[in-house]
């Protein structure tokens, strides 16, 4: 049988259907999909590939899914550091956004983040930012998968005047993007402290009608929880639950403040958590009790958050931080194993986005979203355990090749859909303006 491409790898970690590492294994790709996963020798007997790629020093893993970011904020990386969330947001980030955010800013900032993400093995990002139409357009142009946030605030910004306008623009954009192969959409109310009850109720109704997900910052800091409790007698989590938002189509981002009772309660709802350990550590927000959440059966995905609070878009690093932090805070070295960390960055992200039929593992029938990591560098030798080298030692500079829906977007470290030289010029121009 003739097929488009055969990837012959030294190691292959499919994540699903089995948590194993195969040695000398091939992925067979046709029409943008994985059609077989089998031993190298068998693959050559069974298929006549139009192209063969030998990856004999490499491990193949599923494309990494960055389940929470604000891509265009890459242009704000380093403008305000070493500050707690509300000081950072209210006194630095929001004033800068008010002054600078435009369609051109979002186009160039999103391109900068996409270049960084592709070079680091991220094949899908879940975004929440102004001008989501531009975010979608840039993702399509550069061949990366994106879930675009239909943002809502209860006050005017550069994108809309009031909650109803945010919602109507979001619904129109959802309709425009409905048939885009690499794009999905999600309602994205910013946070409990910036969106009132009525628009949240409306979003629940729209999300149900359109079978869409909802993506929201929630319980990010102790301050957020205490302030709302003092004002209303309720935690933000209880309020969001009373408004009917907590269902399997909801992603609560951060969730650093959770009691054991709240973990049990959240698990019952089927809602997902997106853990952003590096942003939480840098803003000193706390951290999500991931080991306890996973044990309770909550699906926990991983995100970097924007580069103004991280300060990068490096999902390999985020995986390592998630695994190490969970062990450190639980006092249990088995908490968040290397396989669990890889799952959080792949299949769990796909589940949170409702895309697990399509992406998140190297399984037959799924899209060919694949990352090759070269483990021959001294930094990742010897390779007794490829999975441990990926999670605990590899750096994003070892990501050699990336395919999304079968298209090669990184070829031996070269981006195929973005010109880095030209991107650097655009970024430097923004730096001069912002300075
Ligand atoms: C609705 S557009 C996104 C909005 O969120 C701001 N933001 C970035 N990071 C965080 C965070 O960790 N918590 C809360 N809000 C954040 C971003 O600057 C935009 O204004
Ligand atoms: Zn965020």
Automatic annotation (TrEMBL):
<feature type="binding site">
    <location>
        <position position="217"/>
    </location>
    <ligand>
        <name>Zn(2+)</name>
    </ligand>
</feature>
<dbReference type="Pfam" id="PF01979">
    <property type="entry name" value="Amidohydro_1"/>
</dbReference>
<dbReference type="InterPro" id="IPR011059">
    <property type="entry name" value="Metal-dep_hydrolase_composite"/>
</dbReference>
<comment type="similarity">
    <text>Belongs to the metallo-dependent hydrolases superfamily. MTA/SAH deaminase family.</text>
</comment>
<feature type="binding site">
    <location>
        <position position="70"/>
    </location>
    <ligand>
        <name>Zn(2+)</name>
    </ligand>
</feature>
<protein>
    <recommendedName>
        <fullName>5-methylthioadenosine/S-adenosylhomocysteine deaminase</fullName>
        <ecNumber>3.5.4.28</ecNumber>
        <ecNumber>3.5.4.31</ecNumber>
    </recommendedName>
</protein>
<feature type="binding site">
    <location>
        <position position="68"/>
    </location>
    <ligand>
        <name>Zn(2+)</name>
    </ligand>
</feature>
<keyword id="KW-0378">Hydrolase</keyword>
<comment type="function">
    <text>Catalyzes the deamination of 5-methylthioadenosine and S-adenosyl-L-homocysteine into 5-methylthioinosine and S-inosyl-L-homocysteine, respectively. Is also able to deaminate adenosine.</text>
</comment>
<dbReference type="InterPro" id="IPR032466">
    <property type="entry name" value="Metal_Hydrolase"/>
</dbReference>
<dbReference type="InterPro" id="IPR006680">
    <property type="entry name" value="Amidohydro-rel"/>
</dbReference>
<keyword id="KW-0479">Metal-binding</keyword>
<feature type="binding site">
    <location>
        <position position="305"/>
    </location>
    <ligand>
        <name>Zn(2+)</name>
    </ligand>
</feature>
<dbReference type="InterPro" id="IPR023512">
    <property type="entry name" value="Deaminase_MtaD/DadD"/>
</dbReference>
<keyword id="KW-0862">Zinc</keyword>
<feature type="binding site">
    <location>
        <position position="97"/>
    </location>
    <ligand>
        <name>substrate</name>
    </ligand>
</feature>
<dbReference type="InterPro" id="IPR050287">
    <property type="entry name" value="MTA/SAH_deaminase"/>
</dbReference>
<feature type="binding site">
    <location>
        <position position="190"/>
    </location>
    <ligand>
        <name>substrate</name>
    </ligand>
</feature>
<feature type="binding site">
    <location>
        <position position="220"/>
    </location>
    <ligand>
        <name>substrate</name>
    </ligand>
</feature>
<feature type="domain" description="Amidohydrolase-related">
    <location>
        <begin position="59"/>
        <end position="409"/>
    </location>
</feature>
<dbReference type="GO" id="GO:0016787">
    <property type="term" value="F:hydrolase activity"/>
</dbReference>
<feature type="binding site">
    <location>
        <position position="305"/>
    </location>
    <ligand>
        <name>substrate</name>
    </ligand>
</feature>
<comment type="similarity">
    <text>Belongs to the metallo-dependent hydrolases superfamily. ATZ/TRZ family.</text>
</comment>
